[in-house]
């Protein structure tokens, strides 16, 4: 099996770029952030403070999270309910950043990520895929862009959805998540020593996908279907 690990900060375009690259080579795309978001969603639904480690850990035994696929589209199930469409709100984003800093939560989600890689050719994106979840991945990419550019893209995305947003607010939120993700004690966001850095600040979407595909092709040849 082939594994491509794509890590990087929030808003670097990891999921859209990874999804398109996976489609192009017939690999399964795995968005691991959705697992953390599903846990965060459950925590919020149960009125638990996502920064309260003890309370979050106490809730884990009542949670079951797993991946599913509809065609090539990943779905995430929380206690058998498909919650995929409920995970992309700012509240869930912030809570996911908090719960992902808890070691027990990371451990809780670890095996799902490894299991899916064992049975499929995958492009998996997250924060610690190349460093921790799949240290033996044949390809490791660290996908990044400046904070301002990442905030600009997110701002446009939210505006297009019809949401009233303030750019400075989006930028501050994003910097806060960077700070959380990079400075937590367990599995912080780090570039793996053997990862290739792709900075998409000056690239459009198509160029970013091409850059990724070129690296994959160089490392493992044409994607095996
Ligand atoms: O990629 P995303 O924005 O959907 O991720 C949501 C949160 O989950 C983010 O704050 C970092 C965390 N996360 C993580 O710690 N490890 C991963 N492999 C994926 C996501």
Q: Report the average pLDDT across residues.
A: 94
Radius of gyration: 17 Å
Report the uncertain regions.
none
The quaternary structure here is: single chain
Shape: globular
> Which ligands occur here?
2'-deoxycytidine-5'-monophosphate
The major beta sheet can be summarized as: 5 strands, parallel
- The strand count comes to 8
Distance between the termini: 10 Å
The helicity comes to 40-55%
Strand order of the largest sheet: 2-6-1-7-8
The SS-based structural class is alpha/beta
Sheet-strand content, in percent, reads 15-25%
Order of helices and strands: EHEHHEEEHHEHEHHEH
Number of helices: 9
In words, what does this structure look like?
With 225 residues, the chain is an alpha/beta fold. Helix content is 50%, strand content 17%. The chain is built from nine helices and eight strands. The chain has helices at 14-25, 33-45, 53-60, 90-99, 103-119, 129-133, 147-160, 167-183, 205-220; strands at residues 3-7, 28-31, 65-70, 73-78, 81-82, 122-126, 139-144, 196-199. A five-stranded parallel beta sheet has the order 2-6-1-7-8, with helices on both faces. A three-stranded antiparallel beta sheet has the order 3-4-5. A hairpin with a 2-residue loop joins strand 4 and strand 5. Helix 1 crosses helix 9 and helix 2 (33-45) crosses helix 4. The model has no long low-confidence stretch (mean pLDDT 94). 2'-deoxycytidine-5'-monophosphate binds at residues 10, 32-33, 36-37, 96-97, 100, 126-129, 177, 181.
Structure in a nutshell:
This protein is an alpha/beta fold. Helix content is 50%, strand content 17%.
């Amino acid at each position: 099996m082939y594994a491509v690990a794509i890590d990087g900060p929030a808003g670097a375009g990891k999921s859209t770029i990874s999804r398109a690259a996976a489609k192009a080579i017939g690999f399964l795309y795995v968005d691991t952030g959705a697992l953390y978001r599903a846990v965060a969603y459950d925590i919020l639904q149960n009125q638990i403070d996502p920064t309260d480690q003890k309370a979050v850990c106490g809730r884990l035994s009542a949670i079951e999270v797993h991946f599913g696929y509809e065609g090539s589209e990943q779905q995430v199930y929380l206690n058998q309910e498909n919650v995929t469409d409920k995970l992309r709100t700012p509240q869930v984003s912030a809570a996911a950043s908090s719960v992902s800093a808890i070691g027990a939560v990371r451990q809780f989600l670890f095996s799902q990520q490894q299991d899916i890689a064992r049975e499929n050719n995958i492009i998996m994106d997250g924060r610690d895929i190349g460093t921790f979840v799949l240290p033996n991945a044949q390809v490791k990419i660290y996908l990044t862009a400046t904070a301002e550019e990442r905030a600009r893209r997110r701002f446009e995305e939210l505006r297009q959805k019809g949401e009233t947003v303030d750019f400075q607010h989006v930028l501050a939120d994003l910097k806060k998540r960077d700070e959380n993700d990079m400075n937590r004690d367990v599995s912080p966001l780090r570039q793996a020593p053997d990862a290739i850095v792709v900075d998409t600040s000056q690239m459009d979407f198509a160029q970013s996908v091409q850059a990724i595909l070129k690296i994959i092709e160089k490392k493992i040849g044409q994607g095996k279907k």
